[in-house]
Amino acid sequence: MISVRPDILSCIGDTRLLALRRIVPANGARLLLKLESDNPTGSMKDRMALAMIEAAEADGRLRPGGAVVEYTGGSTGVSLALVCAVKGYALDIVSSDAFAREKLDHMRILGARLHIVPSDGGRMTGQLTRDMVAAAGDIAARTGAFLTDQLNNTDQLSAYRRMADEIWAQTGRRIHGFVQSVGSAASLRGVGEALRERDPGVRVAAVEPAESPVLSGGATGAHKIDGIGAGFVVPLWRADAADAIECVSTDEAMAMAFRLAREEGLFAGTSTGANVVAALRVAERLGSDATVVTIMCDTGMKYLNAMGAQAQSDQRLVLTPRVPAR
Questions:
Q1: H/E segment holding residue 85
Q2: Residues 54-77: what's their mean pLDDT?
């Protein structure tokens, strides 16, 4: 049967769930990865961008011919750029040189106007997040554009509840743990709350950068895990949203991203690497009969330059002997 989608936005969601084969807990628990790289921009943020825009359209905050503005580390901006391009809205994005160049270029190609806030040596900090939020607010106040305001916008929770519906069905209603890194906290809350409603025994673990463990009660700091760890306790975070908080360093996250590529053939970014590091810990605690799900947040193609440079530095140069022409 031939099935034709009406537009690219109808291709968002219904992503695959994959069992890891080599990167597995020593105790034999099953570790599953939700492949959000299946979405049109290669990111789970396509879900929330569409949900925020559709909710604003429905209640009149965003009208035909209107404009949108957001602050973002990249993936949310790319997803909003896709949605706004299809729906015909002008989009202003406030971002920074701390984030992957590929994401910034992708937003521009999709038609977004970028406003770049300088970072402290390419690192993510709480002050940088605050500066970006303030700049986006100024643009919205000056132009009258609709500020999606991802750190405060609860409309996105519905998108992640739908992801929970998919996970519940794909696991055959058998899931013991869910692990997700915290950016705005919407995905952790949306998926985690919906899974717990079905089975209160599901254990939910939040992931944050070890260099900036603010959710754990530690001091704010700088890190290089794109898309997570705002540097302060984000407004959508709730202490009861997670049963545990796992701290993962930038180095651990990067190393796991390379392991996923070389051992599983999965090219992902550092937030996914952090998720898998934490999910392995949770799976070990839950035991051999457990099924733990975490998220492949996006594709590694969004980080190709940075990860390629790291890969080059990690490998010795191998010279191929020259074969004389005959």
A1: helix 75-87
A2: 95
